[in-house]
Amino acid sequence: MPKRENEAQIVTMSSTPESQVNSTTESGEDTDVLMSSLEHESDDLWKQHRHAAMVTLLLPIWFSIVVLVVAFAWGGVSLVRKLAFATMGSAAVGRFIIWSGNDAGHALGFSAAQLALIVLCLDTIWAVVLTWHAGILFHVPWLGVKLRAAVIEGGLLLKSNRWMRRMTVIAVLAFVMLPISSTGSIGGSLLGRLLGLSRTATLATVLIGSILGGGMMLGFAEALAPWFQNVSLTTRYGGIVLIVLMGFVLSRRYRRSLAA
């Protein structure tokens, strides 16, 4: 009987794409039903708004290609390589990578402001793709597993923090602004849908949070620039790694407390 009820609810939610996540969140359904609703929502998007689906999926891809082509034309393979390293560094340490930049230049070859812009572009790409196509990405190998884990974590987060349902925009903003990982845009996009925000509202909130978070880290980088210039690279990057590790440990402990 429970299985039939869940199946019936998934069919019902798939017929109302914009309201299904909201109703699922309010009724406290489990994350399996929620992920199924997101998958049906993505299917309905391609059936009912095919043009919007193609634009939101292809635009980030074409933007990335154009950036790489322009970078190659401007600085050759060297600049493309630096962009790749900056992207991987952002994925590994989040917005803390902004602290590794300075106007004098360094190993990556970007200033703090340029790194903040790179992080913002990455956040925008993920936010656009996930806000409209999260259901499809659940089936991508490895990435789908990570996204499902993020949805489960988001569900646990909402259960332990009821205030988020009453202050949805502030909750998503705070989540995205956390500098622990650049994937805050990924988690923020999924959290916005968990909280019942529309696609447009979720995207706008995530972008505002990314701008505020990046601006905050850029401000710290500029304030710490005089101190950075007087210390060795080992001390500088060692301090950044230590902060990231502390954030990682605290994040893991918090996740375990949610699961418990």
Short description:
The protein is built from 11 helices and no strands.
Any overview of this molecule?
- By secondary structure, the chain is mainly alpha-helical.
- The chain has one domain.
- It contains eleven helices and no strands.
- The radius of gyration is 20 Å and the shape is globular.
- The two termini are 28 Å apart.
Overall structural domain count: 1
Helix count from the secondary structure assignment? 11
Taken as a percent bin, the fraction of beta residues is: under 5%
Shape type: globular
Percentage of residues in helical conformation: over 70%
**Biggest beta sheet attributes:** none
Radius of gyration: 20 Å
- Reading the helices and strands in chain order gives HHHHHHHHHHH
Q: Using DSSP, what is the number of strands?
A: 0
pLDDT average, as an integer? 76
Q: How widely separated are the two ends?
A: 28 Å
Sheet/helix structural class: mainly alpha
Low-confidence stretches: 1-29
Write the layout of secondary structure elements.
Blueprint: H1 2-14, H2 17-27, H3 31-48, H4 50-93, H5 112-137, H6 143-160, H7 163-166, H8 168-177, H9 184-194, H10 199-229, H11 233-259
